[in-house]
Write a structure and sequence with these properties.
By secondary structure, the chain is an all-alpha fold. It is about 80% helix and about 0% strand. Helix 2 packs antiparallel against helix 3 and helix 3 runs antiparallel to helix 4.
């Protein structure tokens, strides 16, 4: 039993010694430190690689090794899915080495780092907006890049998420009978994200919401709100003439138009009585 324990401890000691040899030690040259960091990276041990490259960046400022380490530090964080840190280190690389040939790749990966931080639509969308901005800057700066199409697709995807957030906010206000707030969010969905899949449904709901809003308004405000329902119908026809909602929307338009006529007739009648 004792012999077995000695063998186990011996193996652990050897493994530990080998592992320690992989780590950067005081006295290692900058070249050796960089090689050890790259060894971790090639082994896909991105946590240790990031730690090692961070050391090299601090030891090798102003050197070629420091420049390479800065790039691979960002890459290590990115491949380890530490996207907040990755974005920061890509930006540092771009700032320190603006003329480096890998700048385009670094800018795209920085945008991707924000993209990966983008949460589901119900949560705060600051990272989503940052990602959209970074992809737009990328496409403006590198219009001939082979990555432009992918960046554009990512922009569309994230704008659709923002549109859904706006649309779902409107639905909450509809459910809680807060019609003014609902119309504001529906109009935001339409005006800010007209290309999204939510814009068409938002227009349908906006017509319906204006009618319901008018139904529940004092007589003095009904004409304005039924009129907005009719105007929104005209906008719907312009934007989505072949919509599957066409029949539903036409029924809502007829309802709004009839109620608007009734309101105006009542106003004329009351004016004549006075």
């Amino acid at each position: 039993m004792l012999n077995k324990l000695l063998v186990v401890f011996g193996l652990l000691f050897i493994i530990s010694a080998c592992q320690n040899d992989k780590l950067i030690k005081r006295g290692d040259t900058l070249q050796v430190a960089y090689q050890k960091a790259m060894a971790f990276y090639m082994e896909e041990d991105y946590t240790e690689a990031a730690n090692a490259f961070d050391t090299v960046t601090r030891l090798g400022r102003g050197t070629d090794y420091g420049q390479e380490a800065q790039y691979y530090l960002a890459e290590s964080y990115y491949k380890n899915r530490q996207y907040l840190l990755a974005a920061s280190e890509y930006d540092r690389f771009i700032s320190l080495y603006p003329n480096e040939e890998r700048r385009q790749e670094a800018e795209f990966n920085a945008a991707m780092s924000y993209y990966h931080q983008s949460p589901r639509y119900k949560l705060d969308q600051s990272a989503t907006r940052n990602a959209i901005e970074r992809f737009q800057l990328f496409n403006n700066r590198y219009p001939d890049s082979e990555l432009v199409t992918e960046a554009a697709d990512k922009i569309d995807e994230m704008r659709n998420k923002l549109a859904r957030k706006s649309y779902e906010a409107a639905q909450f206000y509809v459910r809680t009978d807060q019609y003014l707030a609902a119309t504001i969010y529906l109009e935001e969905t339409i005006d800010q994200y007209p290309e999204s899949e939510w814009a068409e449904k938002a227009l349908v709901d906006l017509i319906d919401t204006y009618i319901t809003y008018a139904d529940n308004s004092v007589p003095e405000r009904q004409e304005e709100r039924y009129s907005k329902a009719v105007d929104t119908y005209e906008k719907f026809l312009q934007l989505f003439p072949d919509s599957d909602y066409r029949s539903e929307v036409e029924n809502m338009h007829d309802d709004a138009q009839n109620k608007l006529s009734d309101v105006r007739d009542n106003m004329i009648s009351e004016s004549a009585d006075n």
